[in-house]
Amino acid sequence: MTTTEAPRVDAGWADEVRALAAAQDAVVLAHNYQLPEIQDVAHFTGDSLALSRIAAESPASTIVFCGVHFMAETAKILSPEKTVLIPDAKAGCSLADSITADQLREWKAEHPDAVVVSYVNTTAAVKAETDVCCTSSNAVEVVRSIPADREVLFLPDQFLGAHVRRITGRQNMHVWAGECHVHAGISGPALTAQSQAHPDADLYVHPECGCATSALYLAGAGAVPAEHVKILSTGGMLDAAREAQPGRTVLVATEVGMLHQLRRAAPEVDFRAVNDRASCHYMKMITPEKLLRALREGRDEVHVDPELAERGRAAVQRMIAIGQPGGGE
Ligand code: SF4
């Protein structure tokens, strides 16, 4: 049994969540890797950046972000005037934690003319030290936008960095050796074994969140047949699922929470996790009880220093100005 097995909620739980949200002018957002009940009760589900944009555009004065802490911080950066709550502030991210602002400042001091490109899976303090953010979808485009003679510091994900370096052929790009503990489980042997066991299956790789980036790298390196590999945003993955032939097998190389949305979208397609233990325990720290507590008690509130938020916002906005951050969610 995977760790996505749902805790039980009583019949009134969802009604109470929605009633409290309405009473408090709150919008409830759930990342795709949340528990199924949380996804089902949320007003919106999606990936981190899509949810942050929804949060910014929502008329609600309070955002309840069911995801991990850096995502709630990003929502706060983009909506500084709103109250942002996360049901458990201890829901971290091993990838975001793989570099601190101090470490980044030291790295920058070693390469004073370099342009710093940070994946969105970073803390607000790291974003504040960043020139331009990127997602997995647009990382290549962002790096290509930087003049060829400028050094690039790319962080924190080594798999995404290796992928970008391979595609761009860029030699003056330094990559931080960070990784997500979940994607380490979606390994080359696991992908190859699943692909051989299901030779006609499609492989969906979600390009957001660090857990997919090793799959992205391996797919690009030929570990699975290229014609079966579909690199898709959340929305693209759901669109592809709806168009898939009934009875088709699809291997999903990402955190297992995504299977819930895919199976809802296309119940007659056989979706299989490349690694059914690829579950993010930080994501699963957001439980139905804690969501209710967040709405009842207004906790845990997310604060970002306004000066850090302004600098981090500039890095996110530069990314948006360069191109599509990974739409379709
Ligand atoms: S799956 Fe990995 S990258 Fe995504 S939130 Fe969890 S630890 Fe972070």
From TrEMBL:
GO BP: 'de novo' NAD+ biosynthetic process from L-aspartate
One GO CC term on file: cytosol
Enzyme class: transferase
Gene3D superfamilies: NadA-like (3.40.50.10800)
Pfam families: NadA
Cofactor(s) required, per the database record: [4Fe-4S] cluster
Record's keyword terms, sorted: 4Fe-4S, Cytoplasm, Iron, Iron-sulfur, Metal-binding, Pyridine nucleotide biosynthesis, Transferase
Pathway as given in its UniProt record: Cofactor biosynthesis; NAD(+) biosynthesis; quinolinate from iminoaspartate: step 1/1
Domain of life: Bacteria
Molecular function per GO: 4 iron, 4 sulfur cluster binding; metal ion binding; quinolinate synthetase A activity
Assigned EC number: 2.5.1.72
Listed name of the protein: Quinolinate synthase
Taxonomic source organism: Pseudonocardia broussonetiae
